[in-house]
Amino acid sequence: MLVIAAIAVSITVPVWAAPTVAGTTNLVAAENGGRIVAFSSQAEDENGQPIQVWSVTNLIDGKFVVGSHTPADSYGWRTQNVPSPDRPEWVIFELPEQRLISRVVVDPTTDDPEFLGRWAKNIRLSVSTESPDGPYKTVGTYLVVRRGIKQSFDFTPAEARWVKLDITSNWGSDFAVELGEFEVYEAIVGDDVLDQLITRLTTLLDELKRYRDSQRYRQHQQSTQEVTTKPEPPTEEGEGGGQASGQQ
Ligand SMILES: [Ca+2]
């Protein structure tokens, strides 16, 4: 009954309210056709030239700083300015085509250690389906934890062709803000959710069968033990002998 109710609910609710799961393809990765179409600033050398190892394109190159290992040509994105709520540092990403999205993943880790306070802290996400210039609709504001790990942020599924990332603060540095990688994932609804439900129910049925089989095995073991165990001779046997001798 519960199963039928669950299926009925997931079919009858409108698509936008249906349960969704995030896809596994990073839609904004350069190798998947994602692009950066505009950004606030990127680190420059003393001649005003971009420092390539700190280029904004490092955000979608699929390269990560992990522990003490930094890719030789990709340290992360470093800005030229310090962000504030009034003057955030920002990037506009373009997906290959319009998609319903529900998750971004951020890795704050760059070649600079976290104690310098340069990694991104507060961020805001907005989406547009009309143009890189907007109008943009905010889908959420989030805190990026000060740790060198990938961090997922889920939101109500939203149609997007352009995704704008605003960074409104760092962890205290008055030099710049930095970010290692930025990923965007599709919201998957409908048949895929049904597939997930079927997978979950199949797993549950398998577990129930295993439980039933283990119960049967235990019962079988117990009954076998009862049959094969030799009954103890009654303790009255000796007394019986006594009785017998008494009868003599
Ligand atoms: Ca990167």
Structure description:
The longest helix is centred in the last third of the chain and has 38 residues, at 191-228. The model is unreliable at 1-16 and 238-248 (pLDDT under 50). The radius of gyration is 32 Å and the shape is elongated. The termini are far apart. It has helices at residues 2-12, 191-228, 236-247; strands spanning 21-26, 35-39, 77-78, 89-107, 122-128, 137-143, 151-167, 178-179, 181-188. The protein folds into 2 domains: 1-17 and 189-224, no CATH class; 20-188, Galactose-binding domain-like (Jelly Rolls, Sandwich). With 248 residues, the chain is an alpha+beta fold. A hairpin with an 8-residue loop joins strand 5 (122-128) and strand 6 (137-143). The strands form 2 sheets. Strands 1, 2, 4, 5, 6, 7 and 9 form a 7-stranded antiparallel beta sheet that branches. A two-stranded antiparallel ribbon has the order 3-8. The structure holds calcium ion. Calcium ion binds at residues 58-59, 61, 63-64, 74, 180-181.
